[in-house]
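tool_log.txt
---
The assistant was asked to compare two proteins side by side. It first ran the structure predictor on the initial sequence, then on the second. Raw inputs and outputs are pasted verbatim so the downstream comparison step can read them without reformatting.
(1)
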Amino acid sequence: MTHPLLLHTAHRPWPLPSRAYVMHQSWLDLLFVHWPIPCDTLRALIPAKFTLDTWDGTGWLGIVPFHMKNIRLRGLPPIPFTSAFPELNVRTYVTYQGKPGVYFFSLDARHRLAVEMARRLFHLSYLYAHIEVEHDPDGGIVYNSRRCDPRGKEALFAASYRPVSEVRNSLPGSHEHWLTERYCLYSTDKAGDVYRCDIHHVKWPLQTAEASITINSMAASHGIVLPDTPPLLHFARKLDVLIWGLERT
């Protein structure tokens, strides 16, 4: 039976992979927090094989808190106690072989088994963190994260955030489209080989957001100094995602 998401592909920048997808996830209560960062700073932190993707000549760093649910392998139901947990990503944007994608500096998650499996199977810098997520009566999110993994530097993030607009899809060619509509991630192994992981979803159901960020040392844990300017904020209540296995390019 064809997954309903596979019926909506016209918005994709390239065709779906010919292979079958391997995993389904739902991303909930997600906040995109973006700052412009000098290209030289980001270039020094990403593998040399990648081209840093820029907007108007500037690199961008994203910090993305959210909650994952309905994690399951293709054709199987969610596995009890492993199918839902909060996650917090630090990311930038790269291009490889003509395909723009996401490069992660770190991915903090409140699930030890998921952390170890993702590090091994996807060559991603997952780290264990103690993360608490609460919902206020008005639909806002209170998010607190403290990294507890010795493989990464100490990092804290505490924020409250909420949507403040109607849902919209970003316009092709716009800055928010460039920041969010990306359909693969990249990673490298210890030998320096490049891997691509394709993903698929409908267009992001974005909303303008407001946020109060009281603690944030996520970027600093990677040696990145954030500018003293307000970040760009976008919110998405829910997005269902299909994920393919890693492909060495």
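(2)
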Amino acid sequence: MEKHKLICINCPMGCHLEVTKTENGGWLVEGNQCKRGTSYAIRELTEPTRVLTSTVIIKNGFLPRLPVRTETAIPKEKIYKAMDVINKVVVEAPVKVGDVIVENILDTGINVIASRNM
């Protein structure tokens, strides 16, 4: 049987999870204090995602780079390709928090937005 050890990041408890893939293809999660740990562990092992934070070049801003992030988490396997796209972006000031900097990055349906006014 396939076993994995994870630390849940869904709440401040930081439960140490032990996840076992069962013979029928399901998952057995142990060590979680709440039911969110179960869904976190299964999602992390089957479809891991991350919120991507970075910066882009900004012209006429008071700083040379503008912090940006994805609105929600994107598939982990797309992070490097997303960074390739983000690294080519140049924006012009003024920009407000939440402005869309890259729309629908890599056809994920997720936008890259500004994290700061500039």
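---
observation on (2): The CA atoms of residues 102 and 112 lie 5 Å apart. The mean pLDDT is 95.
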